[in-house]
């Protein structure tokens, strides 16, 4: 039965342990620390960063809830949110949850066809979008959307008349909010077993699947993360990963609510470097690509400064030994002993000031916890940052587990592993060395895809991850993706992701795609870093601006030599024996990457089909 009473978001939930749903989580925080800073966002109108405390956040969400109630959506309605990270996205999500609806977060730069598919698949009742042009591109795909009752546009002039026969009606956010009523009938508050989101996984092949996550799933994961990493009320997060990504939703959005930390919304990825220095976050939630780019930029600058490069390398080496001693990890061969430890203690203050602190300043200079998730982190990148003093923690998860399964801790950090399973999460290694997970954060299943659900989720609750792993002393090491294992025509098995990570550790390579399924040997397609390519071209005597230089035999030989050096620790059959290079990055827009920045391998195979055929039509070296 609909509830005509306005739900009171200020209800005092006295203890985090009693929280069972996400609306209760916000109510708990607003009651516990109403005056503490909750959110920080840049206002282009005033050209200033503006703040909201938790009491103001509660009031803002109540206003959005009043507007959503007037929309008279059905119980459990799916509300699609196509907004960049910011107060509007947070408010839309929280208001939907408060009224028992189901948020469907969409990636702001996903392609219109994919978004139209998701809107139809989840039968969205309402779409909240940033720009009218976004909606028009989605509409023009031509996908039937019979369940869609309305579209709310954030940047649309108030009182804009609807187009004749406009279906569904399009409303400006300002008008929509102004029409809200506190006395409008509204559904009952959700229970812990109701859906808290349908998050679509961006598969590397095929159509995305909607992962059904309940309030219990997400709240349990937040509490489990608190058993491993504990943000403080004075911490500041910088939010820049898309809120359509479950990693950001849990670790960068719901977790700070539980802890009372402040979340500052980055203005854009293009301005991220500047925002890091302005906001100076203390907690950083990121994917490996961001750390890789920062390190690559530093290496570019050092390429023409030999003395600074030697200082940087010395700082990494000394810092890494210090890190290993602190974490009780094995030291590199020949670098043990009291004399070495004493020498490192003397050298470190100077090296820290000259080499480490300038790098840490790129992140704002006060990060006390940096988390890397969403994809595997290159050991070389981890080694560099940990050696230079960035407290970098690698974890592991998937959308289907809300998402965090395991993570390292500040005082228990082995970067060659993904750490230990979170409290309350069971893990085991099953057939074909597949990692399996069971616990309260495991999804209900895939939306409208029972046949897909039973393939991965057993009746006793064990979820098959598709990743191969080993577990030693409680620490989990990911060995590769089962479905992505390349099997050559000679029967050799090669994990492409590991090989790609190793090759990409060389600053010459921006992106790497390894292939060789049913082929006689492994080959590689790579996007070159432009400044590094220009440097290499000069060494080879080529004009870097000449497209023919990229395909010159000498270029391929030089690039292949760099690849071979990076892959030296792999079996000989896994080392690429041919390469093709490009300067055009692979992006979401050109359909070569998923919204979570993973390679779309099938698209890459099709795009480079002629190059690949030419590779295998001639003998490899």
Q: Can you characterise this structure?
A:
- This protein folds into three domains: 16-259, Rossmann fold; 283-439 and 465-481, no CATH class; 486-617, 2-Layer Sandwich (GMP Synthetase, Chain A, domain 3).
- The strands form seven sheets. Strands 4-3-5-6-7 form a five-stranded parallel β-sheet, sandwiched between helices.
- The chain contains 20 helices and 26 strands.
- The protein is of the alpha/beta class and 621 residues long.
- Strand 24 and strand 25 (523-528) form a beta hairpin.
SSE diagram, text form:
Blueprint: H1 22-32, E1 37-43, E2 48-53, H2 54-70, E3 78-82, H3 87-98, E4 102-105, H4 112-122, E5 126-129, H5 132-139, E6 150-153, E7 170-172, H6 173-178, E8 195-201, E9 209-214, H7 215-226, E10 236-239, H8 246-259, E11 262-265, H9 272-279, E12 283-286, H10 288-302, H11 306-327, H12 338-360, E13 369-372, H13 379-387, E14 392-397, E15 404-407, E16 420-421, E17 426-429, E18 434-438, E19 445-446, H14 450-456, E20 463-472, E21 475-481, E22 486-487, E23 493-494, H15 496-504, E24 509-515, E25 523-528, H16 530-540, H17 547-550, H18 553-566, E26 579-582, H19 601-607, H20 609-617
Parallel strand pairs: 1-11, 3-4, 3-5, 5-6, 6-7, 10-11, 12-13, 13-14, 25-26
Antiparallel strand pairs: 1-2, 8-9, 9-19, 14-15, 15-16, 17-18, 18-20, 20-21, 22-23, 24-25
């Amino acid at each position: 039965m609909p509830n005509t009473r306005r739900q009171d978001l200020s209800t005092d939930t006295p203890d985090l342990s009693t929280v069972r749903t996400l609306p209760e989580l916000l109510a708990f925080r607003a009651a516990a620390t109403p005056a503490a800073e909750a959110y920080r966002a840049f206002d282009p109108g005033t050209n200033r960063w503006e703040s909201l405390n938790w009491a103001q956040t509660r009031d803002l969400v109540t206003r959005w809830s009043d507007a959503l109630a007037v929309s008279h959506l059905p119980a459990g309605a799916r509300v699609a949110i196509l907004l960049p990270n910011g107060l509007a996205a947070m408010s839309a999500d929280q208001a939907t949850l408060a009224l028992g609806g189901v948020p469907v977060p969409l990636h702001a730069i996903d392609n219109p066809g994919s978004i139209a598919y998701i809107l139809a698949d989840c039968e969205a009742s309402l779409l909240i979008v940033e720009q009218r042009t976004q909606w028009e591109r989605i509409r023009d795909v031509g996908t039937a959307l019979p369940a869609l009752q309305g579209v709310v546009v954030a940047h649309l002039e108030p009182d804009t008349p609807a187009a004749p026969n406009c279906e569904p009606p399009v409303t400006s956010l300002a008008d929509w909010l102004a029409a809200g009523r506190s006395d409008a009938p509204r559904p009952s508050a959700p229970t812990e077993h109701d859906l808290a989101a349908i998050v679509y996984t961006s598969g590397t092949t095929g159509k995305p699947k909607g992962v059904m996550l309940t309030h219990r799933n997400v709240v349990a994961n937040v509490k489990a993360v608190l058993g491993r990493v504990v943000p403080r009320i004075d911490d500041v997060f910088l939010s820049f990963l898309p809120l359509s990504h479950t990693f950001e939703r849990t670790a960068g959005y719901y977790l700070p609510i539980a802890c009372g930390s402040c979340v500052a919304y980055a203005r854009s990825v293009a301005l991220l470097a500047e925002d890091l220095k302005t906001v100076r976050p203390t907690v950083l939630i990121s994917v490996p690509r961001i750390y890789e780019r920062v390190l690559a930029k530093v290496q570019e600058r050092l390429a023409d400064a030999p003395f600074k490069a030697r200082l940087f390398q010395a700082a990494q080496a000394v810092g890494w030994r210090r890190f290993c001693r602190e974490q009780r990890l094995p030291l590199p061969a020949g670098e043990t002993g009291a004399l070495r430890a004493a020498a490192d203690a003397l050298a470190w203050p100077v090296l820290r000031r000259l080499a480490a602190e300038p790098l840490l300043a790129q992140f704002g200079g006060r990060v006390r916890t940096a988390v890397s998730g969403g994809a595997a982190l290159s050991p070389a990148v981890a080694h560099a940052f940990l050696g230079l003093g960035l407290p970098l923690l690698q974890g592991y998860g998937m959308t289907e587990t809300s998402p965090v399964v395991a993570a390292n801790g500040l005082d228990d950090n082995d970067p060659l592993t993904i750490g230990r399973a979170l409290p309350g999460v069971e893990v085991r290694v099953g057939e074909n060395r597949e990692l399996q997970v069971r616990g309260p954060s495991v999804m209900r299943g895939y939306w409208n895809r029972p046949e897909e659900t039973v393939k991965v989720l057993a009746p006793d609750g064990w979820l098959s991850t598709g990743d191969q792993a080993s577990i030693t002393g409680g620490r989990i090491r990911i060995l590769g993706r089962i479905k992505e294992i390349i099997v050559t025509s000679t029967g050799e098995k090669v994990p492409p992701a590991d090989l790609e990570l190793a090759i990409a550790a060389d600053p010459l390579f921006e992106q790497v795609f390894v292939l060789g399924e049913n082929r006689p040997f492994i080959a590689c397609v790579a996007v070159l870093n432009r400044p590094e390519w220009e440097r290499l071209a000069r060494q080879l005597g080529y004009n870097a601006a000449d497209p023919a230089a990229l395909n010159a035999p000498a270029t391929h030989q030089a690039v292949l030599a760099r690849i071979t050096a990076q892959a030296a620790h792999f079996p000989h059959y896994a080392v690429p024996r041919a390469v093709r290079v490009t300067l055009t990055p692979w992006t979401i827009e050109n359909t070569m990457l998923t919204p979570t920045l993973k390679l779309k391998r099938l698209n890459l195979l099709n795009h480079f089909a002629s190059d690949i055929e030419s590779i295998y039509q001639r003998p490899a070296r």
